[in-house]
Specification:
Helices cover about 50% and strands about 25% of the residues. By secondary structure, the chain is an alpha+beta fold. It has a 5-stranded antiparallel β-sheet, with no helix packed on it.
Amino acid sequence: MPAFAIRHTARAALVAAILAAPFAAQAAPDHHRRAEAQCRNCATVVSNHTYKREPERASGVGGVGGAVVGGLLGNQVGSGRGRTLATVAGAVGGAYAGNRIERNMKAETYTDVRVKMAAGGYRTFTEKGVPRFRNGERVRVLDGRLVR
């Protein structure tokens, strides 16, 4: 091989090494530090559990309405003392049923989202409404809430 070709190849290799050295030395450490800092709050959705929660107390409108309707229906049954007993029983039963119906109508849906944190461990987040995330989906914790 002629000396000219050897010198030309050696120069090209030296120039390539000099130009590539800053990129090779810099990229790996910075990339890992940034990825580690970003993923401290990363997580993967493990499960969703959706349920309805009734209010502890109803406004009373359902109970009053149920008592009136139950009393009217009970008053249609029997005569004399039996009619009075049926009216009272209908009013009590109607009040209970009306209260339960009102509470069921005002029930709210909640979802418990369980996630596996990238840094290790599990956390559960309770959100109002239907599930927003699917099992296996990658999410982040931001200000105590889950975000995509």
